From TrEMBL:
PROSITE patterns: ABC_TRANSPORTER_2 (PS50893). This is ABC transporter ATP-binding protein. SMART domains: AAA. Residues 6-235 form the ABC transporter domain. The keyword Nucleotide-binding applies. GO terms for molecular function: ATP binding. The keyword Transferase does not apply. Belongs to the ABC transporter superfamily. It comes from the Bacteria. SUPFAM superfamilies: P-loop containing nucleoside triphosphate hydrolases. It holds the Pfam family ABC_tran.
Length: 311
């Protein structure tokens, strides 16, 4: 079987007496963007810091591209790029000086540094600012430089900690596009509090709450975590509420306006077809039917609650 890019086994960490994360297990095989979600203090930064070799775990193992971090941290780090929440920028350097310095720190061969810098600047759309001092760049461009330093050594796995924090709406869109581009040929782990960001960028989601992994799956699986239980329907020629309530599987019907109704149904029922067929048979003239899905906030809250129940 194919080797995972990242493998985390029974990962636990304790700061003095308190466990920050406990028995976290997952593997990442896919290229693309994986969102790491969790409330404040859930354990995201602890997990990311351990995965990037910034923090030494109390228990468990992290393998990057098959390399055990404890056994060979230098080789493991060659496969990782990291953009911490606060980009580590030396603002008195120009863009190309800074990136050349980062390439050196990342053990890029001296003769390949120039081409690595040119390629990272090109990917991140900052070539035209190569001679500009970092302190004279806007927040969005500084963030691009932060991303450029994370990919300067062409790692297989890139970790970005809240990369759009503090940016204006246009800059946020630009950085999201850039993240999608760099995730085309590598795995990117993105930590964020912003649920709309996850929805706009991520293919997979992991959620940590109170130090435990409470969800791991695709964006679609996350969206469908709470089974829909209501529909909104519009009937041009509506019957009485009692008649609607008699449809098999319907639990309750609320009138929203004279022609709009919210229909609550038993989970697992094929209610859509039943409503459409009954409407046609009885001449109710159904003009709209929409399943009401839970918002990301509701799903997030449900998963946070789950961790509290399990704690
Ligand atoms: N250096 C530290 N010493 C003691 N406790 C810490 C330390 N760093 C984090 N913690 C605690 O560990 C737990 C997990 O913190 P962590 O920073 O990993 O969470 P997080 O999900 O990244 O939160 P945020 O989104 O607020 O950054 C929290 O209870 C936090 O208070």
């Amino acid at each position: 079987m194919e080797q995972p890019i990242v493998k985390v086994e029974h990962l636990s960490h304790r700061y003095s007496v308190q466990w920050a994360i406990q028995d976290i297990n997952f593997e990442i095989y896919e290229k693309g963007i994986l969102g790491l979600l969790g409330s404040n203090g859930a354990g995201k930064s602890t997990t990311m810091n351990i995965m990037c070799g910034v923090l030494n775990q109390t228990k468990g193992e992290v393998y990057i591209n098959g390399i055990n971090f404890r056994e060979d941290p230098i080789a493991a780090k060659m496969n990782i790029g990291f953009l911490p929440q606060k980009p580590p920028l030396y603002t008195d350097l120009t863009v190309d000086e800074y990136l050349a310095y980062c390439a050196e720190l990342r053990s890029v061969e001296p003769k390949k540094i120039k081409s690595a810098v040119l390629s990272a600047m090109d990917k991140c759309g900052i070539s035209h600012f190569s001679k500009r001092l970092l302190k004279n760049l806007s927040g969005g461009y500084q963030q691009r430089v932060g991303i450029a330093q994370a990919i300067i050594h062409n790692p297989k796995f890139v970790v970005l900690d809240e990369p759009t924090n503090g940016l204006d709406p246009n800059q946020i869109l630009e950085i999201r596009d850039l993240i999608k581009e760099i995730a085309y040929d590598r795995s990117v782990l993105l930590s964020t509090h912003i649920l709309s960001e996850v929805q706009a960028t991520c293919d997979h989601i992991k959620m940590i709450e109170q130090g435990h992994l409470v969800f791991s799956g695709t964006m679609d699986e996350f969206n469908n975590y709470i089974q829909p239980q209501s529909l909104l329907i519009t009937l041009k020629n509506p019957p009485s509420i009692e008649e609607l309530q008699q449809i098999q599987g319907v639990v309750r019907v609320d009138s929203v306006t004279a022609k709009n109704f919210r229909v609550w149904f038993e989970p697992e029922e094929d209610i859509n077809n039943r409503i459409v067929n009954t409407s046609v048979a009885r001449g109710w003239m159904l003009s709209e039917i929409t399943v009401e899905r839970s918002s990301l906030d509701e799903i997030f809250a449900r998963l946070s609650g789950k961790s509290k129940l399990e704690a």
